[in-house]
Amino acid sequence: MKSDFIIVGGGVHGMAAAYNLALRGAESVLVIEADTVASGASGGFGQRGVRANRRDLRELPLMREANEIWPTLHEELRAPTGYDRTGGAYLIDGPAKNGFKGIHAAETYARVQSALGIATETWTRDKVREIYPGISDDVHGASFVPTDGVASHEATTIAFANAARRLGVQVLEHTRVTSVETGADGGVAAVVTSTEQRIVVGVSVLLANNTGVRDLVLDATGVDLPMWPIYPQGARLSSSTAARIPILTGHETRSLSVKMLGDEIMLTGGWRGKNATVDQANLRDNIAVLQSVFPYLDDLAVISADASRAESASVDQLPIIGRLVPNLYVATGWSGHGWAIAPAVARHLAGALLANSEAAALAAFRPSRFH
What we know:
It is built from nine helices and 20 strands. By secondary structure, the chain is of the alpha+beta class. It has two domains: 2-47 and 153-228 and 313-370, FAD/NAD(P)-binding domain; 88-146 and 232-308, D-Amino Acid Oxidase, subunit A, domain 2 (D-Amino Acid Oxidase, Chain A, domain 2, 2-Layer Sandwich), CATH 3.30.9.10. The radius of gyration is 21 Å and the shape is globular.
């Protein structure tokens, strides 16, 4: 078997790259997924933030581009993505007790983000209380980006997959890639699967299988990418008191991210599970942080919680995207930053794969930055 372009991983980045390759005329694109499409970090309940606010500045050009794509992506893919431009706020408690943030830095953050194409406002204490009635007196202000919002990671990934299939992309599920063979020139010659099938590479390979990328790269090239697996933990909560949290909400110094799922609260914010299982102590602490910011939510009940979907983290907390050897590319190490920029990243990756070159827009994320 042979394919011009082989993509390992059926998450949002793998499926979006495959779709964009086919859209640009690639006739032989194969996606190999160990389980099913959206079975890993790109699936699960609820929505994820499409957030530019307080993102690493090196990611803002991609975020600006993604903001142009998200509102009409459902029309392009002919399927729902769950996208909703709610706006997004980062709450600020007051002057910084340590570090470099706090209310005095908010105007500077807003000015720099705005200059980079992400219009940002600084809210006063009164404005925060207008938007969030009943919020803690500790909150003195907020950084607000009107173009932030939410989207369904699972629905969007499946939409990319179905659109890719309509363009002729072949998706091979329940098949794990166990090794990548390199040729005499140092490039990739073939990939080998768990069924001992050897698939010859015509042009390029993209490893987008998240936490599985490190071992495949190390075995094939000897390069040990500085990354590791983490298990983000999220919960759905209910309350007898209606939550007055109308927009995507984070906090500058407290580990908190909140979004509404109808009448339910989706709670995340950087808390981790243990080896793919829910850490009950962390869940209690996460809820306590939510209640410290919104004290009227005093009778929260857990509907469900999950920590089973592994994510990859890099040593500098930036994604690792680009070419490693002549025709081997990686897209991994998302560190919780990968979701919102996925539609923009995929366009640039597809162009790089087609030309077997580097994408200028992804230069800050190249694997070579570690060597």
